[in-house]
Every structure is written in structure tokens, then in C-alpha cells.
Amino acid sequence: MTISGLFALAVQPAPDAALLAVPLSDAAADGIVRIATHHGAQLIGTGPLAGWIVLRGGDDGLRGALRRIGVLLVAAPPAGCGTGTPA
Question: Residue 66: which of 10, 23, 13 has the closest Cα?
């Protein structure tokens, strides 16, 4: 697999994959849990840095809603994500 293929998997994860929500601002970090739960996502735990949340699922509007407030969604690697305290 090429580097571009790996990048595509990270930024376009499968719909049922665990996602790492990476806020691009403090305001975005404040809205992640509210928006994710509103869209039916399951909160798995915290990410490796403060404000980052690991989640799974959610409806079709989740990705767009998080993107609009400044949250980047990437595939959550199994090691290092979701091992913290539950969100």
C-alpha cells in the first residue's frame, strides 16, 4: 500500500471504525461530546491529547456536523486511543 493509500484510510475511515475526534480549537473541543451524542455516536474514551475523543458510530450527519465546528476525524489506531478514562 502506498503512502497516499494509508493517508486515505486515516482520513476516510470505514463507517463502523473507531474515530479519533481531533479539535482544531478550544471551542471545537467543547462541542465534540454534545454533537457526537446528538448524532448517536458511542463515546469510547479519551484520545492521547487533552480534548481528543474516541468515538464509534453515529448517523450520516455526524461527520459534517463535527467538521463544521472545526473537528478533524481520523481513524483511531488501536494502540494509544481509547485506553484512557471513558468520555
Answer: 23
12-53 pLDDT, tens per residue? 666 678 999 999 999 999 999 999 999 999 999 999 899 999
Give the span between the Cα atoms of 63 and 66, in whole angstroms.
Answer: 5
- Alpha carbons within 13 angstroms on the beta-carbon side of residue 14 total 4
Cα–Cα distance measured from residue 29 to residue 37, given in angstroms and rounded to the nearest whole number: 14
Does an H or E element contain 31, and which? Answer: helix 26-38
Residue with cell 487533552: 50
The pLDDT of residue 13 is 60
